[in-house]
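hey all, quick one before standup. I had two proteins in the batch that finished overnight and I want to keep them in one place so we stop losing track of which output belongs to which input. First protein below, input sequence then structure tokens straight from the run.
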Amino acid sequence: MTTWITVCDTCKRDDWNAASGAPTDGETLAALVEAAAADTAVRTRRVSCLMGCAHGCNVAVQARGKLNYTLGRFEATPEAAEGIVAYAAKHADSSNGQVPYREWPTAIKGHFVTRHPPLPDDQ
């Protein structure tokens, strides 16, 4: 199963200045995540809102048949992007999406917002 990192590219941290013409924090984080994931089996995509504005910047780590997670409160830094991708790679390697805490990259600790169970199989 492919693990996807879905990045909200419209996330804006409180100190983002629209008048500056700079990319949103979400756009910056998305570009960093895409670069960090370039040579991995993890796939990335951008969406224009994960509805977690109070927790921006937000990403979702998802795979069919596995636990799925929303993570937030990231700054758009290379360290955050590398941690997100490293966690997603461990998610991909797990059978059910659960990654033991001791294996979590430091950059993602304290950033979990929600966990979603896999959808049931259609009967």
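OK second protein, same deal, sequence then tokens:
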Amino acid sequence: MSDLHVVGVSGSLRSESRTRAAVETALAGAERAGASTEHLDLRRFDLPPLNPDLDEQGDAEEFRESVARGDAVVLGTPMYHGSCSGVLKNALDHCGFDELEGTTIGLLAVAGGAFPITALDHLRSICRAFNAWVLPYQAAVPRSESAIVDGEFADEDLRERVSTLGERTVAYGSIEPEPPTFESEQNEGG
């Protein structure tokens, strides 16, 4: 059994979100691997667009504390216009090195069409700027309308791939982080 705590963040505000269903599947995989889990649904947090001139905004402190409780994190995003969702990017903008540096992160992207590879690439770059340890294994759910029906995976192979993401997040959740990345050293803000 693992004593890791895995936090999942769904980067979708849609009420019938397939991204949320996929994150829950990844967290179920993490639980089967022995971790405790917590699903952070961005619909329940008031996270206005980040204004660095303000000390605190909305529920930013609560969100940061929730992310910091995770020994590892699964980030799930729908693919919007070839990238990750703006709400997920904004939520991550409210975080910093205190919450994510050295943290193992698993990436998951969901698309209505073909493979959401660019969304995964963009998330990987964002996470490396935090000097997080991003799993090489990632999960993509293409054609999600037929892959996830009524909140459940209709495609068993995809369900297994997403569940494996949760398992791998636990397996590598306590890995020693690498030296700081070039991206993290350039992460000074605007």
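Flagging for whoever picks this up: The two ends are 43 Å apart (CA to CA). The mean pLDDT is 92.
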